[in-house]
Amino acid sequence: MATEKKNSFETKLERLEEISKNLEKDTKNLDQSLELFEEGTKLSKELFQTLKKAKLKVEVLKKQHGKIFTEELNLEDED
Questions:
Q1: Which of 10-19, 39-48, 63-72 has the lowest mean pLDDT?
Q2: What is the model's pTM?
Q3: Helix, strand or coil for residue 32?
Q4: What is the DSSP letter of 28?
């Protein structure tokens, strides 16, 4: 459960915001700033991928025999 919380979208976004604020303060030395920048870049990519996957999970409404149901649209091959 702790791993899920640590890896949640919201937790990653909060950490990215924290990193951004720390870098804006300009109180870190160059090595610390580079380390934070690298972590922020990694988090940014992970968050982007999460949003991209969420966007691709489009539900398609289909009407068949008078009933409407949803079906997940699979676009994973379009990376």
A1: 63-72
A2: 0.64
A3: helix
A4: S
Alpha carbons within 13 A on the beta-carbon side of 40 = 15
Q: What is the DSSP string of the chain?
A: -HHHHHTSHHHHHHHHHHHHHHHHHT-S-HHHHHHHHHHHHHHHHHHHHHHHHHHH--EEEEEETTEEEEEE---GGG-
Burial 28-56, CB ≥16 within 10 A → b, else e: eeeeeeeebeeebeebeeeeeeeeeeeee
What is the reported pLDDT for 26? 73
Which residue is associated with the tokens 């915001």? 17
The tens digit of pLDDT for each residue in 25-63 reads: 877 789 999 999 999 999 999 999 998 877 766 554 455
